[in-house]
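Saturday, quiet lab. Running sequence design on the structure tokens for the scaffold JK sent over.
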């Protein structure tokens, strides 16, 4: 099965995905399509698998540990108060982890709710020029933390 996740991992490997931040041993760190929460990223596994349970024990540990280190890097760059980690796979049935930096200055009506309550269609889309400094800062943090391999 080919999903959007498969396509994006392929494009990352070809060096043509504009949202690619960098390669870690378990996959690719990419910026989210919508940046309503600045620093929103995803971890896409490489190779792509259907879900977390499809990974063997070592690959699973690596994916989850690297996911948390990416969260540390996002916290350092954005000043967020926490990271919400989500792995759903309902719409795109391939493993991918969403990392949402949550801030105290979010609108009161949304701050304590899941990010899916935001109107994604009305929020700011990823912009290569505008988001380049954030992507570079996350990449630098990942390098400092020893997980960046590309």
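Result came back. Writing it out in full:
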């Amino acid at each position: 099965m080919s999903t959007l996740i498969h396509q994006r991992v392929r494009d990352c490997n070809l060096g043509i995905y504009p949202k690619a931040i960098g390669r870690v041993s378990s996959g690719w760190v990419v910026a989210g399509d919508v940046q309503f929460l600045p620093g929103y990223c995803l971890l896409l596994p490489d190779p792509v698998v259907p879900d977390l349970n499809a990974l063997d024990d070592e690959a699973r540990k690596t994916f989850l540990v690297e996911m948390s280190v990416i969260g540390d890097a996002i916290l350092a760059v954005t000043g967020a108060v926490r990271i919400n980690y989500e792995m759903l796979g309902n719409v795109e049935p391939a493993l991918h982890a969403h990392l949402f930096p949550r801030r105290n200055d979010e609108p009161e009506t949304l701050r304590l709710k899941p990010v899916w309550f935001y109107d994604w269609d009305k929020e700011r889309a990823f912009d290569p020029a505008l988001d380049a400094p954030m992507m570079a800062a996350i990449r630098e943090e990942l390098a400092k933390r020893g997980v960046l391999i590309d």
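Notes for JK: The chain has a mean pLDDT of 96. The beta strands are 20-24, 27-31, 41-45, 82-86, 97-102. Ask whether to fix the surface positions before the next round.
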